User: Fold this.
Amino acid sequence: MPGSNNYTGLAADSYATAPAIGVLLVNLGTPAAPTAAAVRPYLAQFLGDRRVIEYPRLLWLAILHGVILRIRPRRAAHAYSRIWTAQGSPLRVLSEALAARVAARLASMRPGPVRVELAMRYGAPEVFQTIVRMQREGVRRLLVLPLYPQYSATSTGSVLDAIADSVKRLRWPPELRTINDYHDRSGYITALADSVRAHWAQHGRGEMLLLSFHGIPERYVNNGDPYYDQCMVTARLLRQALGLGDVDAIISFQSRVGRERWLHPYTDETVRELGRRGVKRLDVISPGFAVDCLETLEEIAMQNAEFFREAGGGTLSYIPCLNDGDAHATMLSELVVQHLQGWPEANA
Assistant:
């Protein structure tokens, strides 16, 4: 029936436009402000994602809207306020800077222009609106790069859902490619190792190095999520690059919520135990985050540093994420170029 569908389309003569390549970097997202009013819709979108919370739908929505969204926004807003900058959310500011660096690096690496944009899985800029804008500016071939080194259904899988949902709304979707992960890419491991060495050179070296990855429920891994295995590969390769053994560079998982068993050992319990053992200087890096955010700047560098001291430890020295550093932008650009191969415009 005429009018029964409502697809987002282009001008009638858009077929005559020469195809262009677009690269869409996607990160998790952030509330627009460090206030409960801004955090509440962000959390509703994030925690309402079926990929993130795999509970019976109606039961979870009742818990989310009846309990969690009445309590957690104020607490989360306080945490965000501790790391908020004059420019805004660190995650968004650093992600935008990284996207700009990748665009500049790609421009120097290949002959034809590649349009690089940033979107957020939750919050703004939205995935769908960003794809629509790129399409209207001539992008007919789109490569999607989620900014998650290790694949999980809760992160990269959710981004792919957002891409699929967006494509379903377009009358003429772009040709599409996606990158699942880069957990074992040599440039990524080298950049991490170099960042650790640079931190040691500037701040001194701790007695131990803790690799703190974001956690997910153990049940997800048991059901086939490859995240844990990929974290272990990243850790092994980083240890090798730094010449460290299992005892010198240990692994933990942070950010657990609820009563369900998550991947362990838990970061907060680990730093407390190390403090009780008398460790006076602990270096911590979070190799699962592309840029610094609430989970690194507030949870690790502030909360866990306090847990460490209270348990009898000394200084917890946080090693920043790769952020918009040159090595990070170069590695991602090389990854993009590899995945663009075969598209005519990539060789123009």
